Amino acid sequence: MAFQARALVRTKWLSDAFTTRGKMRILDSSWYLPKLRRNAESEFKMRHIPGSAFFDIDQCCDKTSPLDHMLPSEKVFADYVGNLGIENDTHVVVYDRSEFGAFSAPRVWWMFRVFGHSAVSLLNGGFRNWELEGRPVSNNYVRPSPTDFKASLKRSWIKTYEDLLENLDTKEFQVVDARPSGRFRGLDPEPRD
């Protein structure tokens, strides 16, 4: 069983961890809205935190759903992260390249948690903060050897459309919408179909 990791780690901690920590995997989980016309994987190949792998949320999802980025099955998630060299006792640190370092990385952090992996942390400030502090970057990527990862979905962490509708009356849980206020209120156009 993996240990419970700190939810948020600093760049200094990660830099020190390269030499002091045990089994660790760093994941660039950048993703951009299509209107930005940026390719996260290409940017990863040009510059990333040394030793990182790229986590593609367009690939690690339920491809049978007509909706984007729906949670994959346990098997799909386990196979995907196993192919990134992650085992159940690997400490995973995720980051992204957004302005604040917290656009897509929290989603990947949550995916690990919902599939029973508590040894996962977010890099505070993401790649931007890493670079601003003058920490090393690389364009070298070594594909990890595939490993076995066992995923165990925490079903109670998932809310369905029906759960949300019922909650309008029961108010059993609080819903937090992370979209900007204009999108939340329907004043700004949606950036996706």
Structural description of this entry:
The protein is α/β, with parallel strands linked by helices. It contains seven helices and five strands; from the N terminus they run E-H-E-H-E-H-E-H-E-H-H-H. The protein has helices at residues 11-20, 40-46, 74-82, 105-114, 126-132, 161-170, 181-184; strands at 8-9, 24-28, 52-54, 91-95, 120-123. It has a five-stranded parallel β-sheet. It is globular, with a radius of gyration of 17 Å. The mean pLDDT is 92.
Q: Could you give a short description of this structure?
A:
The chain is α/β, with parallel strands linked by helices and 193 residues long.
List the topology elements.
Elements: E1 8-9, H1 11-20, E2 24-28, H2 40-46, E3 52-54, H3 74-82, E4 91-95, H4 105-114, E5 120-123, H5 126-132, H6 161-170, H7 181-184
Parallel strand pairs: 1-5, 2-3, 2-4, 4-5
Protein name: Rhodanese domain-containing protein
Domain Rhodanese: 20-139
Pfam families: Rhodanese
